[in-house]
Specification:
This protein is mainly α. Helices cover 58% and strands 3% of the residues. It has five helices and two strands; from the N terminus they run αααααββ. It has a two-stranded antiparallel sheet. α1 packs across α4 and α1 crosses α5. The protein is globular and about 40 Å long. The two termini are 13 Å apart.
Length: 147
């Protein structure tokens, strides 16, 4: 997934991957790979549309996907709050399309579960399984090595 990405794009990929891996769906719903793909696609489309000068929020088709898309948008907005940039928005759209494709590809793998991509992110980033601090916060440490 990182192949061909610049360093800022690679960091965005890891950022969004962490947000996805830590995302907790509401009402005992499961976040499926299809929901991840829909959320990434809708947010990427929103960034792409804004890049053409049209402000329009594309919406995901399911409740869990829409909630994840909102979480991704809020996290990205917080990340770039002090340094908004059209190039960051373009990079985010590109990275989100990669995430969308990876989630869809994982779902097509024979024998893969509905959450195989999310499970993979969780293993790579150790989200939610790191040591807990005294305040109950999870400290996620990644085993991922970026050259």
């Amino acid at each position: 997934m990182l192949q061909g990405l610049s360093e800022p794009q690679s960091r965005l990929l890891l950022f969004f991957g962490t947000v996805i891996a830590r995302h907790v769906p509401q009402d005992f719903q499961t976040l499926r790979d299809e929901d991840i793909a829909e959320a990434a696609a809708s947010l990427a489309a929103t960034f792409e549309t804004a890049g053409r000068g049209i402000i329009y929020e594309h919406r995901a088709g399911t409740g869990p996907a829409q909630l994840l898309a909102q979480n991704l948008q809020q996290s990205f907005t917080e990340l770039v709050r002090d340094r908004p940039s059209n190039s960051l928005d373009r990079d985010a759209a590109l990275v989100l399309r990669r995430i969308e494709q990876a989630a869809r590809d994982q779902a097509k793998t024979p024998g893969a579960s509905e959450t195989a991509y999310r499970d993979l992110l969780g293993r790579m980033l150790k989200a939610g399984t790191g040591d807990q601090s005294e305040t109950g916060q999870v400290r996620a440490e990644s085993n991922l090595i970026i050259p």
